[in-house]
């Protein structure tokens, strides 16, 4: 990763297994803490994947975990109030930096905390289907299962950085930049 400063542009690129395109969008580098690298996605940012383009309706703070932090097989998004989901965690391969672009392979599973409602794991059926159809290697399956279990437990327990005021601090950094 290149040296980045508050407000520097960056890109988030998520693919599916086998290099199939998935979500891509521009973001703003916010900073680092013990959990990893934080980036901002301001309201009005265009996010695209094959067959779908959307414009964000609230600010978002994203977290790229440090590889040594809980295995690092995930990417988290924390939405500002006013959106139907407060926390959305994509279970993925360990994210890698390519200059100012972060890349990860989305492994289908998602841990979701709705703004009003119970935390749940989404797309377990998709993970089960894709691990066979696309031939996820055993170590990738293991990483996804371990990461999902750890993230789910941390979100349910409200452990940092999930369910704490940490994401609010980074959303404030985005708004003040």
Q: Describe the strand arrangement of the main beta sheet, using strand numbers.
A: 1-2-3-6-7-8-10
Mean model confidence by pLDDT: 95
Major beta-sheet overview: 7 strands, mixed, barrel
**Annotation field: number of helices:** 3
Shape: globular
Determine the oligomeric state from the structure. Answer: single chain
Helix and strand content put the structural class at alpha+beta
Measured by DSSP, the beta-strand proportion falls in: 35-45%
Distance between the termini: 21 Å
**Total number of β-strand segments?**
11
What fraction, in percent, of the residue positions are helical? 10-25%
Q: Unreliable runs, pLDDT <50, ≥5 residues?
A: none
Radius of gyration: 15 Å
Helix and strand pattern = EEEEEEEEEEEHHH
Keywords:
177 residues, alpha+beta, seven-stranded mixed beta barrel, 3 helices, 23% helix
Walk me through this protein's architecture:
It contains three helices and eleven strands. It has 177 residues and is of the alpha+beta class. The chain has a seven-stranded mixed barrel with strand order 1-2-3-6-7-8-10. Strand 6 (60-65) and strand 7 form a beta hairpin. It is globular, with a radius of gyration of 15 Å. It is 23% helix and 43% strand.
Strand-helix topology:
Elements: E1 9-16, E2 20-33, E3 36-41, E4 46-49, E5 52-55, E6 60-65, E7 74-79, E8 85-92, E9 96-98, E10 101-114, E11 120-122, H1 124-133, H2 138-157, H3 166-176
Parallel strand pairs: 1-10
Antiparallel strand pairs: 1-2, 2-3, 2-4, 3-6, 4-5, 6-7, 7-8, 8-10, 9-10, 10-11
């Amino acid at each position: 990763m290149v040296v980045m400063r508050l407000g520097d542009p960056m890109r988030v690129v998520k693919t599916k297994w086998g290099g199939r395109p998935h979500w891509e969008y521009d973001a703003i580098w916010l900073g680092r803490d013990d959990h990893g690298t934080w980036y901002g996605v301001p309201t009005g940012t265009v996010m695209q994947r094959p067959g779908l383009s959307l414009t964000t309706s609230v600010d978002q703070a994203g977290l790229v975990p440090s590889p040594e932090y809980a295995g690092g097989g995930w990417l988290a998004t924390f939405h500002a109030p006013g959106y139907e989901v407060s926390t959305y965690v994509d279970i993925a391969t360990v994210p890698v930096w390519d200059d100012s672009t972060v890349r990860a392979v989305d492994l289908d599973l998602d841990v979701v905390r709705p703004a009003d409602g119970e935390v749940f794991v989404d797309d377990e059926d998709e993970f089960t289907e894709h691990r066979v159809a696309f031939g996820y290697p055993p170590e990738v399956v293991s990483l996804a299962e371990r990461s999902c279990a750890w993230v789910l437990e941390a979100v349910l327990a409200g452990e940092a950085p999930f369910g704490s005021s940490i994401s609010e601090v980074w959303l404030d950094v985005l708004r003040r930049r």
